[in-house]
Amino acid sequence: MKSFDYVRPASVADAIAAGSLPGAVYLAAGTNLLDLMKGGVSRPDRLVDVTRLPGLDRIEALADGGVRIGALVRNADLAHDAAFAKAYPAVAEALLSGASAQLRNAATVGGNLLQRTRCAYFYDPASGCNKREPGSGCDARHGENRLNAVLGWSDACIATHPSDLCVPLVALDAVVEIEGKGGRREVRLEDLHRLPGEAPERETVLALGDLIVALRLPADARYFSGHARYLKVRERTSYAFAVVSAAACLRIARGKIEEARLALGGVAAKPWRAREAEKLLAGAAPHAENYRRAAEAALAGAKPSGDNEFKIELARQILVRALATAAVGTPERIPALPASPLSTRPGALNDA
Amino acid sequence: MHHSISLTVNGVRRDIALSDARVTLLDLLREQLHLTGTKKGCDRGQCGACTILVNGRRINSCLALAASHDGADITTIEAVARDGELHPLQAAFIAHDGLQCGFCTPGQIMSALGLINEGQAGCDAERIREGMSGNLCRCGAYAGITEAVLQVQKSLAEAEKRQVA
After folding, report:
1. Contact check, Cβ <8 Å, A1/B22
2. Which of A240, A280, B111, B161 is deepest in the core (most CB within 10 A)?
3. Which structural domains are found in chain A, ordered by start?
4. Interval B136-160: pLDDT, tens
5. Position B2 pLDDT exceeds 80
6. Which of chain A's residues have a Cβ under 8 Å away from the Cβ of B1?
7. Strand, helix or coil at B49?
C-alpha cells in the first residue's frame, strides 16, 4: 500500500478543507477503501478520517414524516433500528443481504453509496480499465464479463454498481445531502451515480471536496411498508454480491396496485430505477401476467455487454418474483436468508 | 508521520505509537502487541479469520485502520478463556468438532460471540448459519460450528427462562 498522510478533522468545514486538496480521499469505515488501497487500485496521498465528525451518526424522524439518516450510521444499526425497519422493510432487507455481519457492523451508509465497482478488471492494476486509468481500455469487454452490465453501459466501461442498499433507496426517491466548498446541496440518489459514457472514471456528480452528510427518505416512502421486498440472486447462498437484484415496493388497495416503485441492482453502473414498468403497474391488478409485462418493460433497453445475456432474463424473473412476494405482503420478520429467492422451507418454491 | 493512539485491549489500556498510518488493527495486534491469536487469512475482508470485537461488535480487523480507532475497546481471542477455564463457546466448538486445522477458529469464536451479543439469531440454525457467513472454514467444519453456536444459544435461552421463572 502506498504511504499516505492521515488527518482526522473535528468539523465538517475542516473536513471539506482537507478533502478539497488534490490526492485527498475521505475515510469512513474503510471496508472498501482499504481493500482498494491494499490492491494498489486506490492510491490516495491523504486520508481524511470523517468518522469523528459530530452529528452524522443519527437516524432522525423528520417533522414532515420523512426520515434522515446520517452518513456515518452503520449498515447494521440502520437495518436493526426497529422503527426504520418497520417503515422501510425493503431497505432493511437489502442491508441485511449485503456483505457479512462483520462488514455491516463497520460499513457506513455514506460509504455504501460511494463503494466502487467489483469488476475484476478494475481490481487488477495489470489490466486495462478506463475507470481506474482513463484511456487504458476495457479488458472486461472481451474478458470474463458474465457478471457485467446489461443496461446503460458503453464501450468504454461495462462495470456495475454493487450496492444492495441503493436499490430500494432509489426506488423510494431517496435524496442525498452533500456539503461542499459551495455550502450544502441536495441531489436525488437517482442522479448521484453517472453512467459511464466516454468518461467512466467520473462515477458520481460529486466534486472534489464534496462530502455526503446524510440521506433522506421522503414522507411517502413509508406508504409502501406493507408490500415491500428486495430480492437478490447470488452465486452462493450468502455473503456475495448480486448477480442481479430487484426492489419492489407496492401500494395495494381494493385489489389494485395503486402505485409501484421498482429498481434493479447489479445490472448497470448505477442503481436502476424502472419507471416504465412502474407506469404499467399503476392501476393494474397484482397478477403474474402484469408482473411479466412490467419486467419486459424494465429490461426493454437491455443488451448483453459480453457473455451475460442470461442476466437479462434473470433480471426479468427476479423482478417478477420480487413483485409477487411484495404483493403477498411484507413478512413480519425479515427471513433467515434476507433477500434470498431460495428457501430452506420444505415445499417452498425455488423457481426464481 | 507518527501518530499515537490509546486502546483498551482485553481490559488493559495501552498507549501505542504508530510508526506508519498504514497499520491496520490486525497488524497492530499481531506485530506490535504480539497477540497472534487473531489470524491473518485473506487480509481483504473476505475470510473472517481476523474477526475481533471493537466496542463489543465484531468487525474484520484487517480492514480497520488503527489510527482511526483511537480510544476503542478491543477484545481478542486471548481474553475469551478466563482463569484457565474455556468459555462455553470454546468448549462447544471442541465438543461438536467445530474445527479441524484450527486456523479460522479464533475468528469463528469471536464472530460467534458477536452474533450472540447481537441477539438476532436465537436458536434458529438457519439464522446462525447466515449470521456466521462472514467466516470461511476451508476444512469445512461448518456443521460442527453451527451445532456449537446453537448449543450455546440454547443454554443461554434456558438460563434466561430459569431466571424469569
Report:
1. yes
2. B111
3. 5-49 (3.30.43.10), 225-328 (3.30.390.50)
4. 999 999 999 999 999 999 999 999 8
5. no
6. 5-6
7. coil
